[in-house]
């Protein structure tokens, strides 16, 4: 069993974030020692690492909550549970990821447009600077 500090070290999330995830229901509340300190099993640490990966993908906490509603489906399938039991869950996850990918692609297009505009301005200013240098000689 691991303390919240140890889980924090393993996952890169702060203890505050871990407690916040518990508070909003993204993460189930762990068992506690007699003194009230949280203790985590390795499987819970793996689940927190999964949440962190989803966060790093840029998913919102609402999307992460929806995405993980059925827990770690891949683990359940690898343990021999029937894939058909999770088809609706997998389809919902596909929807979430497809929507997220479309948003990312739109943001990439915006960034590409900004880069092009910046390159155009940079080229213009460099050209103007060359003309100023030639005129002053």
UniProtKB/TrEMBL annotation:
Please give one Pfam family short name.
MerR_1
A molecular-function term among this protein's GO annotations: DNA binding
Source domain of life is Bacteria
What SMART domains does the record tag this protein with? HTH_MERR (SM00422)
Sorted alphabetically, the keyword list is: Coiled coil, DNA-binding
Report the coiled-coil segments.
Answer: 87-121
Q: Where is the HTH merR-type domain?
A: 1-70
Record PANTHER family? REDOX-CYCLING DRUG-SENSING TRANSCRIPTIONAL ACTIVATOR SOXR, TRANSCRIPTIONAL REGULATOR, MERR FAMILY
Protein name according to UniProt = MerR family transcriptional regulator
């Amino acid at each position: 069993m691991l303390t919240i500090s140890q889980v924090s070290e393993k996952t890169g999330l702060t203890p505050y974030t871990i407690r916040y995830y518990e508070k909003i229901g993204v993460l189930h509340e762990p068992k506690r020692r007699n003194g009230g300190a949280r203790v985590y099993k390795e499987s819970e640490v793996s689940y927190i690492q999964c949440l962190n990966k989803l966060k790093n993908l840029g998913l919102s906490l609402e999307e992460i909550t929806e995405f993980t509603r059925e827990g770690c489906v891949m683990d359940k399938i690898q343990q021999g549970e029937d894939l058909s039991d999770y088809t609706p869950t997998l389809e919902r996850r596909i929807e979430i990821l497809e929507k997220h990918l479309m948003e990312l692609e739109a943001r990439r297009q915006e960034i590409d447009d900004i880069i092009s505009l910046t390159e155009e301005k940079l080229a213009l200013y460099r050209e103007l600077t060359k003309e100023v240098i030639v005129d002053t000689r």
